[in-house]
Amino acid sequence: MTCHHLPIIILAAGASSRMRGRDKLLEIVQGAPLLRQQALKARAATTGPVLIALPDFPHPRYQALDGLEVLPFAVPDADEGMNASLRRAFAALPADAPCAMVLLGDLPDVTADDLAKVAGAVDLDSDQLIWRGATQDGAPGHPIVFHAALFDAFATLIGDSGGREVVTQAKGRVTLVPLQGSRARRDLDTPEEWAEWRKEQMSSPS
Q: Are 18 and 110 in contact (CB under 8 A)?
């Protein structure tokens, strides 16, 4: 059994604290804010719900999602770290969801096809509990699909571990899905990283 209609959770409630006043999720990528691009990729990859963790309303990130068929929700305790978003997101999932995908908001190179590839690797009849994107050379990254058997573990997470405890709980029952290059792990947290990335985009063949 596969998981074609899986919910996708986008983590986008962080403060962009290393951007020195800019918001990395509102950086323009291919004509639109990165957050909107991530939401569009998720929307293209599933017929299930797309839940987006955001800072408390009002915030400009909400406007970046105007008109999209997504479910934004506020994370008032987002300054605690990523686990606050994960707790709230997994609590908000449909009760009958057999699995769910988590995607970081700041991975600009991940494509809708990448999300679909990871989702397509899910086999709910196997003994695996996690399916996750990896770099071309096998380093684990994002997106990550979690089996429903792990959902309850998110309820007690605290801090900013990004759910590593839940991955540990899977005890190696993890399938890695290689994606091209390093895009499963390349996030852009500083103005310098954004500048380097844009330089690479301009020099790469279209």
A: no
Alpha-carbon distance of 159 to 182, in angstroms, equals 26
Intervals of the chain under pLDDT 70: 1-4, 205-206
Question: How far is Cα 59 from Cα 113, in angstroms, rounded to an integer?
Answer: 29
Q: How far is 122 from 27, CA to CA, in rounded Å?
A: 32
| pLDDT tens column, 114-173 | 999 999 999 999 999 999 999 999 999 999 999 999 999 999 888 777 788 999 999 999
Residue 149 CB neighbour total at 10 angstroms: 14
DSSP codes of every residue in 33-98: EHHHHHHHHHHHH-SS-EEEEEPSSS-HHHHTTTT-S-EEEE-TTGGG-HHHHHHHHHHTS-TT-S
